Each structure stands twice: as C-alpha cells, then as structure tokens.
Queue: 3 jobs
Job 1
Amino acid sequence: QQQEIENQRAIQQQEIENQRATQQQEIENQRAQHQEVLENTRFVREVALNPDVRDQPFIGLDLREADLNLLDLSCRGGPDGCAKLALADLSGASLSGANLSGAYLMRTNLRGANLRFADLRGADLTNADLTHADLFLADLRGAVLRTADLSKTRFLGKTCYNEATTWPAGFQPPHSPTCHRVFFRGPFPYTLEYLY
C-alpha cells in the first residue's frame, strides 16, 4: 500500500513538472515569436524607407499584429520590384494608409488586418484570407480577389473598385464604388497620395 502511495505521488509530481515545463516552453515560444515579428517589422520598414532598394522580399514573413501604417510598399521599377508578401502572416496587422499597389499577396493571412485607406490597386490577393479584415475606403481597382476568402470582411459600403477588380465567384461586392481623394502626411520623408 505504501508503495502505491509513493508511486501516485511520483506520478503527480511528474505531471506537475511536465505542466511547468510546457508552460515555460509556451512562454519562450511567445517571446521568440514576438522578437521575430519585431525583427521582421524593422526589416520591412527599412526596405520601405530606402528608395534605393528595389527588391522587396517579404515572402512568408511573420508580421502578426505588426504596425505597418502608411508604409510605401508600392512597385519599384516594374513588377520585379513589387512587394512580395505571398504566404506572409499579416493577421491582425495594421496597414492603414499603406501603399500596397501591385503587391503579391497570394495566400497571405490578412485575417483581422486593418486595411483602411490602403492602396491595393492591381494587388494580387489570390487565395488570401481576408476574414474580418477592414477594407473601409481601401482602393481595390484592378485588384485580383478571385479566390480570396472575403467572409465577414468589412467594407462598410465604402470601398473603391472598378470593372478591372476581380471578385470571388458569387461574391456580391459593396453596392457602389466610393472613390475620394485622401492625403496622408505622416512622419515619413514622403507624402502618400491616393485617389479614391
């Protein structure tokens, strides 16, 4: 009987130690992920703010909840200089007012992303996940959304698009395109001007 009690205690102690180790590993993983996002965000910002850098190689980067507001990630010197964000994780990221015209966003995770006022003209969003993304006053003229997941995407009836915009089969776009001129004069060494 005493041996059984000791065995039970040993098992319980091992379970406690395993739980502690698991929790510690989760904390370490979260720290590492947070650090990776910070480094990736810094890299994207450095590229965006350096007009001499043509290549924008951001494929597969972890940018969850990153602050990328107002960044100019538009094409530089042709299609090869467009931002390559395919397979990147931008879930919950803030891209308000960002210039992503011509960007490659195929299979990009944009769940819950803030894309208000973003310039997505000609962007390729094939198979992108835009669930719960906010596209209020975004510019989607010529954007490819053919197989994008737009379930619960927020347009609020005010998103700019035209006949060149490709929507998923059976998707009902906002009632009518809303296009206004919006100027952004932020703390960056350039002015972003979008026609909506």
Note: The helical segments are 2-48.
Job 2
Amino acid sequence: VTEPTCTAGGYTTHTCQRCADTYRSDERPALGHDYRDGICTRCKETDPSTESAVIASGWSGDLTWVLTDNGIITFSGSGNMKNYTYKSQMPWYEYRDQIKAVVLEDGVRTIGNYAFYNCTKLESIVLPASLRTITEVSINVQTPTGTYAEMQSNLFEGCVSLRSVDLSNCKELEILPTKMFTGCSGLETLLLPENL
C-alpha cells in the first residue's frame, strides 16, 4: 500500500504469485498541501505564494533575523537572542507595526528582553523545541532539571492582535509568569507543553 502524499496519489499494488505481473487498485488522489503560516502541515514545504520580499534583516546575539513583506519575522541560527535594556533598542522595533507572525527556528535557545514589546499586529508565534529561556532581568528560577528558566513577565505586553501562541514543543519551560500576556485581548489559543 502506497499512501497518498501532498503531491502524489496513493494506491495498492497487487503482484501475481505465478507470473509476477503487477497492477494497481484503490487509487486515491494526492492530498494537496495544507499550508498554515506559510508551511505545509504534512510535508513542511514552504508555500510558494508566501515567498516575500525582505524588508529588513540583521543580527540579534547569535541569531539572524529576517522580516518579509508578508509580516513574518524569522529568527534562525544556533544560540541566544540578544537582551535589550529598553524596548526601542531591538533592531526591528521600527517595523513592529508590520510584524504579524514570529517564527523561531530550531536552534534558537532564548528570547531576549523586550523582544516583541508593543508589536500590536502580532497574531501568531511558532516556538522551537530548542527554546530553553524566555528572559527577564528580574526573574531567575532554577528548574528541577538544573537548567535556568528565566521568564519575561511582560514579553508580549501590548500585542493586542496576538491570537495564537504554541509553546507545546518547549519541553524545558516549567513556569509561565502571570503577566506574560498582559494586554493580549485577542489571544484565543495557548498551547502548553505537557509538563506545564
């Protein structure tokens, strides 16, 4: 049995025991892509219609960031995002009203102070399994596993358009501060890891 994929149909192959001839039956059409936030949920292919022009890009600590004209800011690399001591110091702050989605690719280990402060158009965030720390200067908690889980208590403050946050892959996170989503009046979905 060959299962259908996004681009190829599925079928059952039958082989004759005597002559080894084969034929197909139970043919099923290709499933087609199921794009969500520009990525197919089945095969992980990027939606070609969402390929966009780069508005701005740069570095933040160990990571590179790219903001495209579809409103997606993507952080990639291996390591930590820079901590900012004031909200306007983050290099993408001048574009905050254009940011609709944040994608942190696998390898990103921390989110820095004030990272998404007042991003009023932010609707969704995709966080990787590699994420260990969401920072804030004043909160520093050692977890039972011996790692430090630092949480930004006002990380998404003022993100009134934020509808969805997926923390389900963040197995190292053990505490969510009570003010993490202050002013996020549009928040509809918050997915947490099993350990929270």
Note: The CA atoms of residues 134 and 158 lie 17 Å apart.
Job 3
Amino acid sequence: KVIGKHYLGVGMSSTDPHKAGTAITIRDRELLERPFASLTNQLDGMMVSHLATSDALIPDSLNPEVYRHLRQDLGFEGLLITDDMYMGAIEEHYDGKEGWIEQASLDALAAGADVIILKYSTEVGSVLSTLSREVERNAGLEISVRESFERILDFKGISFTDGSDKHPEIRISGGRSIEHTRSGQEEQWVRRRVKR
C-alpha cells in the first residue's frame, strides 16, 4: 500500500510540529498540492499533517475543510490518516487540558479522518470509550465512522458479500456481511458499532 505524506507538505514550516504548533501562509497552494493531486488515483492513503495551512489557524488534521477539499475537490477516495496525535502541535492546540488526546482524536474523526495515529497504546481504550459515547449521541458521526470503517476494510482488502450469512456475527446495514473475522477488544467494539 502507498501512503502520501504529509499533506499539504511540511517543507515550508520553520517549526517542527512534533514540538509545537505552526501556522504557515500558503502563497501557492496549487504548487504545494501538485504532488498529492497528481497521485490521487495511485495513493491508497494520505497522511494529513498538523500544520495550520488555512485561515482557521487550526491544525489541518483537525480541520473539516481540509478533509472536504481532499474528498470533494481532489476526489481522493482512499484512507485519510492523521499524523501521530501525540505531537506538540496538537497538545498546544488544546492547551494540554486533561482529556486533550481523547478530544483531539474525536475532533479529527469528526473532521473527516478515517484513522488516527496514537503512539501510546495505553490511550486507545479511553479514546474508544469517548468515541463510543459520542457516536451514541451524534448520528452524523456514526455515519462518518461507518464510512471510515468501510474504507479501512477496503484498504485491508476485506470485501463485502451481499446477502451472505457466511459470518453473521458482524453485520453492516443492508444485510452485508464481512468476509473476515476479528478477535479481542477490537472485534467487540466493531460488533457493537456495526450491528446497530
């Protein structure tokens, strides 16, 4: 699989987003975007950086407009992945408040990311709990998570078979079943989310 990174590019930044947030002024967005736009149909995924390249002054990985642009204007259909959420640019954006990693992860998914990267596995449970609670309250987020789930399965080469009862334990709306089984905590979470 081929992942393009870091959209929109980090070469123009004078600050390392691992350490701190940085906003850059884009004089020629088309020029910076050209490598990504030319490879749109060849990339399986694209990693979105934590640079703030819009007037909104929020990291691109949290900016719904960036994801909308990638999907609608560039026509990108692959996975959209955040850079590691444990970077200074993200922590700084949330002022290091308690629960910032959970909120940042939720905000990235709500903005349009399909996958978030967390370098510490100890936070996965709390992020999943936060996401689960929010999906219960927010139908739009639930639809977005389902769409992301389907893109992840496609990325992994897992196909759907309409009308099959081959693996009835995991269901997607419309009676489609997944030709793959999972194990452990991930499978339990997936089962709860997709059976609804």
Note: Residues 10 and 69 are 18 Å apart (CA to CA).
